[in-house]
Amino acid sequence: MFVNSINANLRRVPKWFVYLMLLLPVPWLLYLGLTGVLGRDPIERLEHELGKLGLQLLIATLAVSPLNRFWGIKLLKFRRVLGVMTFVYISLHLLVWLVLDVQILSQIWADIVKRPYITIGMSAFLIMLPLAITSNDLSVRRLGVRWRQLHKLVYVAVILGVLHFLWLTKGFQLEPLIYAVIVIMLLALRIRRPRRRTT
Fold first, then answer.
1. Which of 100, 85, 6 is nearest to 45 (CA)?
2. 10-residue stretch averages of pLDDT, the chain, 199 residues long
3. How open is the CA angle 85-141-152, to the nearest 5 degrees?
4. 3-state DSSP percent of the chain in helix, strand and coil, to 5
5. Suppose 61 and one of 11, 49, 53, 82 were both cysteines; which one would form an S-S bond, judging by CB atoms 3.0 to 4.6 Å apart?
6. What residues contact residue 151 under an 8 Å CB cut-off, 6+ apart?
7. What pTM was estimated for this model as a whole?
8. CB 157 within 8 A of CB 165
9. String of b and e for 52-75 (b: at least 16 CB within 10 Å)?
10. In angstroms, rounded to a whole number, what is the distance separating the alpha carbons of residues 43 and 40?
11. In a 3-state reduction of DSSP, which class is residue 64?
């Protein structure tokens, strides 16, 4: 009964409203940065917060299917919204790093090559790029079965995203470890046990 009530309310929520709600942290973070609330290094903090929001949305995207399969919570219509907004936040995270943080083109390439956590992060972004480009009805129709196969790359992207977060974190931090545990659990839920043959 409780799940039915949740699903009934979810059906009434338009996709544009979810896009709008998920975009709200962007102007808020910019406001905090401009008013000095983000601390002594607002650019680094902004970069970090945008990347973290992107990872959280990526994990939320991964959670849609298990929520539907095991608990009957119908979030499937919002999965593409979550995926697109994941890419938006990861792109903003990358843009802040490129334009506001490093700025020098040669230094950007040097960082990608020499710093493993940046190499991993950039790899995750490049994997997500074709997923974002094909997140539309036309691509679904044209690619057919290949679309599902292509979008399984999200599993690789989320693993690389968590590794990126774990690697760049200084000292022992609980938050990235929690994300890692959640991702492992969500991926484990996708492993289907082979059906036993009945004689």
1. 100
2. 83 93 94 87 91 96 91 89 96 91 78 87 94 91 90 94 88 87 92 57
3. 50
4. 80, 0, 20
5. 82
6. 131, 134
7. 0.90
8. no
9. bbbbbbbbbbbbbebbeeeeebbb
10. 9
11. helix
Decide if 58 contacts 50 (C-beta within 8 A): no
The DSSP code for 98 is: I
In one-letter notation, the amino acid at residue 153 is L
In angstroms, the first-to-last Cα distance of the chain is: 38
Amino acid present at 44:
E
14: which 2 tokens? 């338009």
Amino acid at 125: F
**Residues 93, 50 contacting (CB under 8 angstroms):** yes
φ/ψ region of 39 (left if φ > 0, alpha if ψ in -120 to 50, else beta) reads left
C-beta of residue 130 within 8 angstroms of C-beta of residue 152:
no
Instruction: Enter the tokens of residue 121.
Output: 């992060």
Q: Cβ distance 85 to 57 under 8 Å?
A: yes
Amino acid identity of 30? Answer: L
